[in-house]
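Regression test case RT-17, inverse folding.

Input:
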């Protein structure tokens, strides 16, 4: 029997389960998650994002790699919840691979990115996910990716 579907995490709880900090936190709210299974999170895209002045000044578009990063951050949150642990200064949560990344529509200031990420498998410390980002119900990006929690060598 799987864990019950949990609902909602505010930014304070997100920061407890995410090793990132401003200006690189790309998850504003968790709508729901199921430990060991999936997460749905939100990134509110605003004109104040630090990348918009340079990407592109006359037609601001959120970089696709940051959409994938937002999916990975949502994945990190559900992964730490699944492990019943929190990020520490002794380890880093790294990308191990990105496959089948597709970008279908541009994401602009004022959009609300809905991030849906599923845990596909966990094998020898490597977590594999499939993710999809939507705006107003339309798919804007999707990818499969792998992440790993690695100890920092000091």
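Golden output:
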């Amino acid at each position: 029997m799987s864990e019950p579907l949990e609902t909602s995490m505010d930014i304070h709880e997100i920061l407890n389960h995410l090793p990132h900090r401003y200006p690189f936190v790309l998850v504003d709210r968790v709508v729901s998650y199921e430990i060991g299974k999936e997460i749905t999170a939100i990134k509110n895209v605003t004109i104040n994002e630090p990348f918009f002045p340079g990407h592109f000044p006359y037609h601001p578009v959120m970089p696709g790699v940051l959409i994938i990063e937002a999916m990975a951050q949502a994945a990190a949150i559900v992964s730490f919840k699944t492990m019943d642990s929190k990020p520490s200064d002794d380890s880093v949560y790294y990308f191990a691979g990105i496959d089948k990344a597709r970008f279908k529509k541009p994401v602009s200031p004022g959009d609300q990115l809905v991030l849906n990420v599923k845990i596909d498998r966990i094998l020898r410390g490597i977590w594999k996910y499939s993710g999809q980002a939507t705006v107003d119900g339309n798919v804007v990006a999707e990818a499969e990716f792998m992440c790993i929690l690695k100890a920092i060598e000091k």
